[in-house]
């Protein structure tokens, strides 16, 4: 007996045409977490902020220990344009013009400061006397140190 081939039913496309799958609801039922629950987006944002802060702290630490940022004492004095020391001599005329010589406590150098009408003193109407301590703030004007503020101590 010879076997005959049976005719198979013809296949249609694999797409479902009539019956639709039931839709899922858009909200998934998630188990309630005890305590603080952060989404992935919030976790990423927190990590980025933490990485930036750590990076800035490392950058500051590296720059402070390198030669780029230096703690400078301006010639061993109190500040960039300030000298604190003992007044050695004073020669001020009637109009307030004159010179003050101050020996620095830090370096021992003697500085000459020129005074004028724009020089202010912490005690008004009184110039420093020789032997007193004074802190002199000044401006360097073409190589001449012009006193702007004299604090007598």
| Structural class based on helices, strands and sheet pairing | alpha+beta
CATH topology name of one domain: OB fold (Dihydrolipoamide Acetyltransferase, E2P)
| SS strand fraction | 25-35%
CATH superfamily of one domain: Copper binding periplasmic protein CusF
Q: What is the number of helices?
A: 1
CATH architecture of one domain: Beta Barrel
The residue fraction in helices comes out at 10-25%
Query: In angstroms, what separates the terminal alpha carbons?
Result: 132 Å
Instruction: Give the C-alpha Rg.
Output: 42 Å
The chain-level mean pLDDT equals 83
Please write the CATH class name of one domain: Mainly Beta
Biggest sheet architecture: 6 strands, mixed
Strands ordered across the widest β-sheet: 3-2-1-5-6-4
Write down the secondary-structure element order.
Answer: HEEEEEE
Total number of strands: 6
- Broad shape: rod-shaped
Q: Segments where pLDDT lies below 50 for 5+ residues?
A: none
């Amino acid at each position: 007996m010879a076997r005959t081939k049976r005719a198979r039913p013809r296949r249609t496309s694999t797409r479902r045409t009539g019956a639709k799958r039931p839709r899922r609801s858009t909200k998934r039922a998630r188990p309630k977490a005890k305590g603080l629950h952060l989404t992935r987006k919030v976790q990423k944002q927190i990590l980025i902020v933490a990485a930036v802060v750590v990076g800035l702290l490392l950058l500051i630490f590296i720059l402070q220990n390198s030669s780029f940022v230096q703690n400078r004492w301006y010639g061993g004095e109190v500040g960039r344009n300030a000298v604190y020391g003992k007044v050695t001599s004073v020669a001020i005329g009637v109009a307030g013009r004159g010179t003050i010589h101050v020996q620095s406590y830090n370096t021992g150098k003697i500085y000459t400061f020129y005074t004028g009408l724009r020089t202010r003193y912490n005690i008004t109407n009184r110039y420093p006397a020789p032997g007193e301590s004074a802190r002199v703030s000044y401006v360097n004007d073409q190589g001449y140190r012009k006193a702007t503020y004299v604090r007598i101590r």
